[in-house]
């Protein structure tokens, strides 16, 4: 099923609280944005990451992303089935986890976070190979999650290359 397909149910705040998977999949409400829900999900990742930084080391945040990824697979699968759309645009837990991983590779500065945000969005939207291959061929919740992790990996590679030549501090 395509993410361009109309959902069986119209997602609303009420929909988010029918099942915990919906609340998680929709990025705690950020995916309800009428326009560019993926961008709003990515924006939601920023203050959440800042909170995580208050309690966890960067290494612990990286490890924390693993169970959140697994929970995201489950939540995306359940929510996609309820909506009747495999990768509905409002499902943004994938953007959140991927953005957390990208933020681990930049300094906590406006430039670092801004560039991380911009590069992640570019790769998530353009889906260069092999992201597009995974996006089209991997079903279920893992299919929803994996393409954003790969977009995050592309963003990290670009950020590491940029930081080799320029300081983001």
TrEMBL record:
Pathway: Phospholipid metabolism; phosphatidylglycerol biosynthesis; phosphatidylglycerol from CDP-diacylglycerol: step 2/2. Keywords: Cell inner membrane, Cell membrane, Hydrolase, Lipid degradation, Lipid metabolism, Magnesium, Membrane, Metal-binding, Phospholipid degradation, Phospholipid metabolism, Transmembrane, Transmembrane helix. Its EC number is 3.1.3.27. InterPro entries: PgpA (IPR026037), PgpA-like_sf (IPR036681), YutG/PgpA (IPR007686). GO terms for cellular component: plasma membrane. It is a multi-pass membrane protein. Residues 24-162 form the YutG/PgpA domain. It holds the Pfam family PgpA. The chain crosses the membrane at residues 12-30, 36-53, 60-77, 97-123, 144-166. It is found in: Cell inner membrane. The keyword Iron does not apply. GO terms for molecular function: metal ion binding; phosphatidylglycerophosphatase activity. GO terms for biological process: phosphatidylglycerol biosynthetic process; phospholipid catabolic process. The keyword Cytoplasm does not apply. It catalyses: a 1,2-diacyl-sn-glycero-3-phospho-(1'-sn-glycero-3'-phosphate) + H2O = a 1,2-diacyl-sn-glycero-3-phospho-(1'-sn-glycerol) + phosphate. Its cofactor is Mg(2+). Lipid phosphatase which dephosphorylates phosphatidylglycerophosphate (PGP) to phosphatidylglycerol (PG). This is Phosphatidylglycerophosphatase A. It comes from Iodobacter fluviatilis.
